[in-house]
Amino acid sequence: MKEYMLIFRHEDGSKIASPEQMQIWMKQTMDWLGALGASGNFEGKGNGLLFDDSRVVHHNKVVTNGPFGEIKETLGGYVVVKANSVDEAAELAKGCPVLQGEGNTVEVRKLAREDGVH
Amino acid sequence: MEQQQLIPHLFRTEYRKIVSVLCRHFGFEQIEIAEDLASDTFVTAAQTWSIKGLPPNPTAWLYSVAKNKAKNYLQRGLLFDSKISPEIQKNTPEFHEAELDLSPQNINDSQLQMMFAICHPAISQEAQIGLSLRILCGFGIEEIADAFLSNKETINKRLFRAKEKLRELHISIEVPNEAEIDARLEPVLTTIYLLFNEGYYSESQHKTLRKELCQEAMRLCTMLIENRQTNKPAVNALLALMCFHASRFEARINKNGEHVLYDEQDTSLWDPELISKGAYFLYCSANGNQVSKYHLEANIAYWGTQKTDNPEKWETVLKLYDQLLQMAWSPIAALNRVYVLSKVKGKQAAIDEAIKANLPRNQFYYTLMGELYIGLDNAGTIANLQTALSLAKTNTDRLTIQRKIDALIN
Fold first, then answer.
1. Is the domain of B96 the same as that of B40?
2. For A20, which of B51, B52, B140 is closest by C-beta distance?
3. Domain final position from B73, B102, B131
4. What number is the average pLDDT over the span B111-126?
C-alpha cells in the first residue's frame, strides 16, 4: 500500500461552533480514525496544525503572524493513511467529519516514496 | 485507540468555567477577548486530541493551554493598545503579571460573580437569559437560537447590544455585599426562573436541549445555595419549585410529541428522586421571615406531585393561589386558580368566576372553559374547545384539542 496525506481544510470554526459542537466533531474524528486504524489504513501518523503561535515568512524575509486575514480556508491538521490508490484514499477521506461543514475540504496527496521513483 | 472515554459535555462544562475566570481576570470590558481565548482553547484541543488522542488529564491540559493563551495575549501587548480606561489599569495592579487562576475556588467565585454581572436589570430579560446561556452555561449561538425559536443573527445582535450596555455601565464583577444581596438576587432568580421556563414550555422540537435548559437553571440555582452568601430561603424555594416541575418532564410529552395534561399523565414516569429533592429544598426554604412568590409557587407545585384528590388539598392550594395572586398576579396563575376553584366550589362557580375575572381570552382560557362545561353543557364545551382550536399556535396543541373535541362528539 502507498501512503497518502489527507489535509483538512476548514473555515474558521471557533467563531461559529459551540463547545458542545466541537466536542461532537472531535469524537466523530476519533471514531473515524479508530475505524481506519482497525482496517489497517491508519497507523497514528498525523497531527493538528495549531493556529496560535504561527508565523508566515515572506520572500523578503519579513515575518508576520499568520496565516490569517484574507485567507478564509485554514489548515486544521493532517493524517497519513495507507491505501492502494489515490481513489481508495479519497474514499477513506469521505468519512472525515470535517466534511460536514459546507466549504470544508480534505485534500489528498500522495507521499513521495524513498525509492525516488514515485 | 484511546484508553479513556471523553466525559460528556466536557467542553461545554469547562468552557463556561474558563470564560468566567478569563472575564473576571480581564474585566467585563474585555469580555469578547475572554470568549475568544476560551473558544481558541477548545479549537486547539479538538485539533490536537482528535489525532493524537486524549491527554492523561484533559481538564488540566485545557487549563494549561488557557493560561498560556492568556499570557501570550498579554505579552503580545495587544491589551495595552486597546481602549482600556486608565482607572482599570490603576485599580488592578496585578492585571499584567498574575497568571490565570484556575483553582476550584476561583472558578466557583468567578462564576458566581459573573451571574450577578450578567443578570442585571439594565438589560432586557431575554438578553440576560441569552448571556447566561452563553457565558454561564457554555451554549453556542445556534443552540440558543434553537431554544428561543429564533435565528443566529437575532441572538448575536441581542448579545452584542447587551454587552455594550453593560460595558457602558462599567459593570463590576463581584458578589454584592450583605446589605444589597437580597435586592441583587432578585434579577438573578428571575433569570434562572425564566431560563427554566424556556426549557419547560419551549416549543422547540429539540427535546434534549430543552431538558438541558432546565438542568442548567437548576445547576445555577444549586451554585447559589452552595455559597454561604447567597444561600437564601427564596433561592431554596426556587430550586424546590424547579425540582417539582422537572419531576414530571418525562410524563409531559408523549411519544407523538403531544402535551399530556396533568390529569392524564402516567405517574410512573414521574421522577421520585426529584420530588424528594424538591421536598428537601422546600423544607430548607422554610425559614426567615420573608415569603417570596417562589415559596408560594413551590408549595403549590408540591401539591402537584401528590395525586391525592381530597377537599383539604384543594382548599390549601386555593389559599396558596390567593396569596400568590396578591403578591404577583399573572394570567397563568389566575387561570390555574380557576381550575382549583372548580375543585373547591364546583364547576359553575368556577365558570362564573372565570367570566368575571380579567383573564386574557387565549387558547388556554377556552380550553379550561371547555373542561369546566363538561357534564354541565356539552354544547358549551364543544363551542369553547373550537374557539380554543382556532387560537392554538402549535400543531401539537391543535392535535390535543382536536382529540378532545372528537372524543366528545362520539
1. yes
2. B140
3. B102
4. 91
The C-alpha atoms of residue B116 and residue B258 are separated, in whole angstroms, by 37
Omega prior to B93 cis, within 30 of 0: no
- CB-CB under 8 Å, A47 with B48: yes
C-alpha dist (Å) from residue B200 to A78, B225, B249, B305, B325? 43, 22, 8, 16, 22
- Asked if residue B80 and residue B128 are part of one domain, the reply reads no
Q: Which three cell numbers stand for residue B116?
A: 450577578
In B, which residues are within 8 Å of A101 by CB distance?
none
Q: Where are the domains of chain A?
A: 2-13+21-110
**pLDDT 10s digits, A33-57:** 999 999 999 998 999 888 777 888 8
Contact between chains at B50 and A47 (C-beta distance less than 8 A): no
Interchain proximity B44–A23, CB inside 8 Å:
no
Over the stretch B57-92, which tens digit does the pLDDT of each residue have?
999 999 999 999 998 888 776 555 555 555 555 555
B72 contact residues in A (CB cutoff 8 A): 52-53
> Are B98 and B17 within one domain?
yes
Read off the pLDDT band of A5 (50, 70, 90): very high
Q: Could you tell me if B71 and B124 lie in one domain?
A: no
Are both B152 and B216 inside the same structural domain? yes
Element holding A110 (H helix, E strand): strand A105-110
Q: Is residue B218 part of a domain?
A: yes
Q: What distance in Å separates residue B277's CA from the closest CA in chain A?
A: 28
Quote the domain boundaries for residue B28.
1-102
Q: Are residues B140 and A17, on separate chains, in Cβ contact within 8 Å?
A: yes
- The single residue listed with the C-alpha cell 496544525 is A49
Query: Who among B39, B51, B142 is closest to A14 (CB)?
Result: B39
For residues B134 and B62, state if they share a domain.
no
Select from 2.60.40.10, 3.30.70.1060, 3.40.1130.10, 3.30.420.40 the CATH code of A2-13+21-110: 3.30.70.1060
* C-alpha pair distances (Å), B58 with each of A20, A22, B20, B139: 15, 15, 19, 20
Contact B10 A49 (CB under 8 A): no
Identify the band that residue B281 occupies on the pLDDT scale cut at 50, 70 and 90. very high
Q: How confident is the model at residue B379 (pLDDT cuts 50, 70, 90)?
A: confident
Looking at residue B265, what is its pLDDT?
84
Q: How many domains does chain B have?
A: 3
| Segment B355-368, tens digit of pLDDT | 888 788 888 889 88
Give yes or no: residues B126 and B218 share one domain: yes
Nearest CA in chain B to A30: B50
Asked whether residue B1 carries a pLDDT value surpassing 50, the answer given is no
A106 strand-pairing partners: A8
Do B159 and B82 share a structural domain? no
Which residue would you say has higher pLDDT here, A83 or A114?
A: A83
Give the CB-side neighbour count of residue B26, counting CA atoms within 13 A: 29
